[in-house]
Design goal:
435 residues; mainly alpha; Growth Hormone, Chain: A; 80% helix; globular
């Protein structure tokens, strides 16, 4: 996506506008925490499918399909939004898709695998697409002096919202059991309805306060939205390659981010199926995990300023490796609480510190363009991990080798990150861009 044109003539950015931008993550986090990671993931595996190994394969396919679809359509949608000056409208479409199709999951009962997967994939496409669009607003409402703080505020509000959503759904999620009674099934099916309502309410400040600072501009002669979308994506790829350290950082991020995405999709299923947690215990586990994630994000933000972003990410990836290895050997719920603590620290730190390092490696003039590319590229590669986990779990009949395989993403990501020169990356970002 291109940078906001005409932002200098727009009204000054207000605190309400920044808060409106952050509130999109408040709404989004409820979906990813409860639907993608915990309650509906368990509902799908336990009640809809009833076979854990088959459920892992299907859940992995659903995750992969939605990520790939977003990666394919995001450049086209981005071009339409940029040239039509209508990013906020597309954000609204994504919000409507999430709300409607999340609520529609209420109709999914035992054995309704095809309908359940279809509705979830469409809702998840809306979620992933909305993430691409909302990130493109950041350069227009921030400066180099406050972008990190604004982004950090959005992360913190999102984690806090995830906690609230988990607590709201905890009484209903306790009823996610095999062969539920009609009353238990009715209560469990209310989880997506609650999240759809929560999302619809929490996203309102975004559309009230966030201003669309992009302006309409004509398409280049002889082009359409499809061609111009992928042409701009290719041009951005060529531009990024001129910043070698940033390009190497992107490659490393794509690998280890795939590991993080996979853990997000399968952590609750692993706790329930392999370790033996009840659905209610899983929700309680993730409440604690979100608290740790907030602390991890704050602590590593402070640590990164003192030891450098690259070292902080390396430490975070080491924690991730320890978490997946310990998960492989874990036999008790107590041990898995330690796994969840390590994963919470890794989840809260790795992505937020990486984002700040990308900002330091990115010329201010290219911020929107490069962040848009990062979002699309991240979606394009995020299908690999869930597919690997689901396939290995299905083939072996065990989630343990599947979770150990995901550790490879963190190891390879760390090796690739070792080749990134932090000093050179910052120096390159500070150099004038050749015209």
């Amino acid at each position: 996506m291109t940078q906001d044109i005409g932002a200098r003539t727009a009204p000054p950015v207000t605190r309400h506008e920044i808060l409106g931008w952050c509130f999109y993550d408040v709404a989004d986090s409820a979906f990813t925490t409860v639907i993608v990671t915990t309650a509906f993931a368990m509902y799908f595996g336990t009640i809809v499918v009833g076979d854990s190994s088959r459920a892992d394969q299907l859940w992995g396919w659903a995750a992969s399909i939605s990520e790939v679809v977003v990666a394919l359509v995001a450049p086209v949608l981005g071009a339409i939004a940029d040239y039509a000056g209508s990013r906020k409208k597309f954000l609204g479409v994504c919000a409507a898709v999430i709300t409607f199709f999340t609520a529609s999951l209420w109709f999914v009962g035992p054995g309704m695998v095809g309908i359940g997967l279809t509705l979830f994939i469409i809702a998840n496409i809306g979620f992933a697409g909305g993430g691409v669009f909302i990130d493109s607003f950041l350069p227009g409402i921030s400066t180099s002096a406050n972008a990190g703080r604004i982004s950090g505020l959005k992360w913190a509000m999102g984690y806090a919202s995830g906690l609230v959503a988990l607590i709201l759904c905890l009484p209903l999620a306790r009823n996610i059991v095999a062969d539920p009674s009609s009353e238990q099934l009715s209560l469990a099916r209310l989880v997506p309805v609650v999240i759809a309502g929560y999302y619809a309410i929490m996203v309102i400040p975004t559309f009230f306060f966030l201003r669309d600072r992009s302006v309409r501009r004509p398409l280049p002669p002889g082009t359409g939205y499809l061609s111009v979308g992928f042409r701009e994506l290719a041009q951005t790829f060529r531009n990024i390659r001129h910043y070698r350290e940033l390009f190497k950082l992107f490659i490393a991020f794509l690998v280890y981010n795939d590991g993080i995405v996979t853990v997000i999709y399968f952590a609750a299923l692993y706790a329930k199926v392999t370790i033996g947690f009840t659905a209610g215990e899983v929700m309680t586990l993730f409440i604690a995990m979100n608290v740790v994630a907030v602390a991890g994000a704050l602590a590593f933000g402070w640590l990164a300023d003192r030891i450098g972003q690259k070292r902080a990410i390396m430490l975070s990836l080491s924690i991730w490796i320890a978490a997946v290895v310990l998960a492989y050997f874990a036999r008790s719920k107590g041990t898995f609480y330690l796994v969840a603590t390590l994963a919470g620290v890794g989840m809260g730190s790795c992505q937020s510190v990486t984002r700040s390092l990308v900002a330091l490696f990115t010329p201010q003039e290219k911020a929107a363009e490069f962040y848009g590319f990062l979002g699309v590229a991240g979606k394009a590669m995020a299908f690999v991990g869930p597919l690997v986990f689901g396939t290995i779990s299905g083939m072996t009949g065990s989630q343990r080798p599947a979770i150990l395989a995901i550790g490879i993403f963190f190891v390879v990501g760390m090796i690739l990150l070792a080749f990134v020169n932090e000093r050179r990356g910052k120096e390159a970002a500070a150099m004038p861009i050749a015209t």
